[in-house]
Amino acid sequence: MEKETKCIHAGYEPKNGEPRMIPIIQSTTFKYDTSEDMGKLFDLEASGYFYSRLQNPTTDMVAAKIAALEGGTAALLTSSGQAANFFSVFNIAGSGDHVIASSAIYGGTFNLFNVTMRKMGLDFTFLDPDCSEEELNAAFRPNTKAVFGESIANPSLKVFDFEVWAKAAHSHGVPLIVDNTFATPINCRPFEWGADIVTHSTTKYMDGHDATVGGAVVDSGKFDWMEHKEKFPGLCTPDESYHGIVYAQKFGNAGAYITKATVQLMRDLGSVQAPVNAYMLNLGLESLAVRMERHCSNALAVAEFLEQNENVAWVNYPGLADNQYYRRAQKYMNGGTCGVVSFGVKGGRPAAEKFMKNLHLAMIATHVADARTCVLHPASSTHRQMTDEELAAGGVPADLVRLSVGIENVSDIIADLKQALSSL
Ligand SMILES: *Cc1c(COP(=O)(O)O)cnc(C)c1O
């Protein structure tokens, strides 16, 4: 199946007389005839459901669709993108371990790694994603367990050099984890470029309608855990909390990582996605391919309009031919990038604030990546405690406006931007 077809059909194949649509199995628990039947499930000798904190048929069907879209072997839905990124790393790294991450990542992920996971005893090195190969290779330590990046960084829109980072990770015997939220599997398939694990905030384009917070972790099934078993004892030695099971032996490369994340992390942490949320996420997934096409064509037209406007100082969109990341985007994402554009308003902070006030269609929201065009001026909202100098040093200049281009008719979006800019 091609990706557009997978969006509709992957993950669920109704049999004779069964529901046409992925059904919502809104049940915490599942009934068995004998304790022996249930015992087999607990021993992971048989597959089936017993309690929705670990697995639920609805969430599994939607996870299977996302796995198919990414070209992976298995996937797990989580309650949010934050939980997905936490699980992706914590499944293979713990106290005393080290992780290398791109510095161009979502702020929430940066805090998760740099504050909360440090408190748990993990150490992180953050590197400019465009650093030299020498610098990247020099960051590895004997206790490095994973490398982490974002396919298109939120909000800097830097495009990740998958091949360079995958090569460095693999030559040091560790997997590459990529957050593919902004590009989505419609525009980029990280597994084809060397990534081993993919994560998503499904809250963004996958849901796409501002309806439900969620996340996903997908395994490519390609990383050979047993070949590096001294680094990954959690997968390659007996799990005492699970009757001494050795995940990499019992489930192989295709199943070990997601099985462990489900029966161990999800069992203990419970960051589960509700079946009804997974049902809504699936509605978004069905139209993902069509919507991404429109998000990208609208965003490109908006970026081209902004480049020509006399009140705009600069435009950053990796789909523009003069963008620093254009060639890399063409290589890794030849169908399009994402719908997020950032730009600077001439006149700095006061001009940007005035521009924001004068918008009618584009809504002010911290959210990005859904059907409705929305806009954020970090210097007067999320980053308002910072001075202009601090903002510039942090790569979020005071004139920066982040625009998430929706799927409305592009002439309405451009007309709104045009009138707000002409008021300056
Ligand atoms: C929003 C976002 C997250 C966090 O996801 P939530 O669903 O809000 O928890 C992680 N990564 C990226 C790239 C995001 O944009």
UniProtKB/TrEMBL annotation:
Pfam families: Cys_Met_Meta_PP. InterPro entries: Cys/Met-Metab_PyrdxlP-dep_enz, OAc-hSer/O-AcSer_sulfhydrylase, PyrdxlP-dep_Trfase, PyrdxlP-dep_Trfase_major, PyrdxlP-dep_Trfase_small. Its cofactor is pyridoxal 5'-phosphate. The modification N6-(pyridoxal phosphate)lysine is found at residue 204. SUPFAM superfamilies: PLP-dependent transferases. The keyword Lyase does not apply. Gene3D superfamilies: Aspartate Aminotransferase, domain 1, Type I PLP-dependent aspartate aminotransferase-like (Major domain). GO terms for cellular component: cytoplasm. One of its GO terms (molecular function) is cysteine synthase activity. One of its GO terms (biological process) is transsulfuration. Keywords: Pyridoxal phosphate, Transferase. PANTHER family: HOMOCYSTEINE/CYSTEINE SYNTHASE (PTHR43797), O-ACETYLHOMOSERINE SULFHYDRYLASE (PTHR43797:SF3). NCBIfam families: OAH_OAS_sulfhy (TIGR01326). Belongs to the trans-sulfuration enzymes family. This is PLP-dependent transferase. It comes from Treponema peruense.
